[in-house]
Amino acid sequence: MTNMLQKIAGMAGMTDQVIATDFLISTKTAVRNLTFALTESVTPDVREVLQKQLTYAMEAHEKISQYMMEKGYYNPSDIEEQLEVDLKASKAALKLAK
After folding, report:
1. Cα–Cα distance, 17 to 46 (Å, whole number)
2. pTM score
3. What is stated as this protein's family in its record (predicted)?
4. Is residue 81 within 8 Å of residue 69, measured between CB atoms?
C-alpha cells in the first residue's frame, strides 16, 4: 500500500534518498553536539559516556555516507555529480508541490 501511494505521489525513488539524507544530517548534528558537550564536560564518567556516543555517531555517519554513495545519492568528491543529484531532487520536490 505504501509503495503504491509513493508511486502515485511521484516519490517512488525519492523516499529512500530523503530518509537517508535526513538521517545523515541528523548524524552530523549529533557529532557536532556531542563534540561540543565533550569539551564542556568536567567529570571523567560523563566524558567516557560522551566519547562512546561520539564514536557511535561517527560510525553511523560513515555507514550512512557509504550507503548513500553506493546508491548515488551522495557524491562528496564530485561536486558536478552532486549538483545533478540535488537538482533532480529539487525538481521532484517542486512537482510534488504543484
Report:
1. 35
2. 0.73
3. Belongs to the CotF family.
4. no
